[in-house]
Amino acid sequence: MSYIRNNVEDMNGYIPGYQPEEEGWVKLNQNENPYPPSPRVLDAIRNELGSLKCYPETSSALVRKEAAKLYGIAPEQILVTNGSDEMLRILLESCVSPGDEVVAFYPSYTYYRTLAAMQGAYFRLIDFSDDWGLPEKLGVEDAKVVFLPNPNAPSGTLFSEGDIAKLCGIVLDGIVVVDEAYGDFAQVSAIQMLKDYPNLVVTRTFSKSYSLAGLRLGLGFASQELIRQFDKVRDFYDVDRLAQVGALAALQDQDYFRSNLQKVINTRSRLTKELSALGVEVIPSQANFVLAKFTNPTAKDVYQQLRERKILVRYFETPRLEDCLRISIGTDEETDKLISAIASILAD
Amino acid sequence: MSYIRNNVEDMNGYIPGYQPEEEGWVKLNQNENPYPPSPRVLDAIRNELGSLKCYPETSSALVRKEAAKLYGIAPEQILVTNGSDEMLRILLESCVSPGDEVVAFYPSYTYYRTLAAMQGAYFRLIDFSDDWGLPEKLGVEDAKVVFLPNPNAPSGTLFSEGDIAKLCGIVLDGIVVVDEAYGDFAQVSAIQMLKDYPNLVVTRTFSKSYSLAGLRLGLGFASQELIRQFDKVRDFYDVDRLAQVGALAALQDQDYFRSNLQKVINTRSRLTKELSALGVEVIPSQANFVLAKFTNPTAKDVYQQLRERKILVRYFETPRLEDCLRISIGTDEETDKLISAIASILAD
Asked: CB distance from A54 to chain B under 8 Å?
């Protein structure tokens, strides 16, 4: 078809985790938070319903101000976006011309490939080392953008400030994106490194730790100059009125946030222990999921048998992951069901 | 700065209409609907608040199904987006490579230029004829995308099916976008022309006729094949849960919609008549605004004096528009205030 760019015709769209239509599933396949958002978020949204006929404020000024306070950084270094996926797209649109090199590590978030394809970029995957670290030889000198999720998904493993600094030093003419979608669960952030690395961009989301996957909210952090450029590429009414007041209320209710976060972290410890007790190998995770290894029966079998019991986890049929399942941290009750299902499957 | 693409560094961001922070303004500068959305929209949003921790359904399937019924077209020919601005961006990202020609007419929606700049396209403006029609000589044979708002903003004038068919025939290797942001107020649509023109794309928004500027919702209509390609470029969770249920409820409440629409159309007639009675030249409008010509005092003076009276209208300091004001259709009460303010300004 002559109307469509070749890079778009050739690319595949991203395929997100399965979403069942009926009720009654234990849904541990999309790393959603098992707990609802703060009641203050819902109140704020209800109070905003009378204003829907008017356009939103275009820069999400109040959210940026609140995030600035929370993260100890200037509001001019922050962009609020329609999910952090939009932030990632804006970044690539701002920095990547057709043919430029975009690098991600493997295995990690597969959407990076889709984003690179949209720009007609040359996309390169570099394998993580055996212990999920950066490989010795990086060879990313010419990259325009390098993606590093921290903690990484689906391994749940963490990179050090030294790793990030090293990458920023090597990728001199390009951007290093530290994707902190799961950063809160590790209680780390590279935001404070921004003052030392002008080519660093940090992205965060409200989908996981703030329980707002359904509202679509992300944050981007970078130098003022980079943010000023990204802002021009942003759809100028990208964040709607309800999302703006919801984000503000979520950031303001840090007590609720921290208590929720602690519950997820506690359940993560418990799940890791109980799976290990069943003989399942689990990589110690810093995120809101664990990567668990199954050999007999195979991971694919366990996935299928869990699905028959109406428990959804994520199975990736790709190298290094084909004997693993990524399991999101659920409520205590969901975790009970999961553990007893796995115990029964393994005992069969 | 080496990190940013030249086309992005060189471009200016879009500047939307002024949004006052305080209450008490008569706000007729952004073509917002003066009436609230259907109460069923607000109920649907309230009922969805319990699901915010989970991701939205990625394809907005229920909205597409309802829109398909309403417009008599297949759901596979529809895309739901985060405002119609997102639909326009997706289209350019799918079709336009750096250096490709993108055409818009002048004067019209200025965001087309920003969208073209994002893609590094060569952007060309062609003047409308004196009576706001298409010029005799179009010279758009090589365009990859041509934008035609119908009705046009800020003139409020309408193009015929013949105009659209002519454009689609000339722009053989490119897309003709009929931007129907204001289409409901003219009670016309090019959607039924899609079956005859494979290079036609129609866009619509919920911001104007459905009173949902604050919720960000747009629709794109095209051939199944084009929609399939656009869908790959869409942020796959672009439309949040509240927007999806809101859109569905809005489409389902056609009685409310039609009664609201009629009120705006009636006030448009009244405003046109009363401005004419004051000696102000008004172009007969098919949209939810009128373009009114002022000479003594100048449009800029009238704009300023209205602003001092806390009435906001839109003034564009650009050729062909510098003696005009674009005035959105407000409530009857707002229209009373506007008319009496203009009468008093003209009498001074």
From this structure: yes
CATH code for the domain in which residue A70 is found: 3.40.640.10
Q: From the list B8, B13, B235, which residue is nearest A82 (CB)?
A: B235
Task: Decide if B175 touches A, using CB distance below 8 A.
Answer: yes
Three-state DSSP at B38 gives: coil
Whether residue A4 and residue B49 make contact (CB cut-off 8 A), yes or no, is no
Single-letter amino acid, residue A291: L
Contact partners, residue B62, CB within 8 Å, separation at least 6? B244, B248
Q: Report the CATH number that the domain containing residue B334 is assigned in CATH.
A: 3.90.1150.10
Contacts of A208 in chain B (CB under 8 A): none
Q: ipTM of the assembly?
A: 0.97
Range of the domain at A151: 39-252
Distance CA B259, CA B239 (A): 27
Please count the structural domains in chain B. 2
B9 part of a folded domain? no
Q: Buried (b) or exposed (e) across B168-183, using 16+ Cβ within 10 A?
A: beebeebbbbbbbbbb
Helix (H, G, I), strand (E, B) or coil at A286: coil
- A vs B: CB pairs below 8 A: 219
The 10 Å Cβ neighbour count of residue B330 is: 24
State pLDDT tens for residues B142-198. 999 999 999 999 999 999 999 999 999 999 899 999 999 999 999 999 999 999 999
What pTM did the predictor assign?
0.97
Q: Which of residues 140-159 of A touch B (CB under 8 A)?
A: none
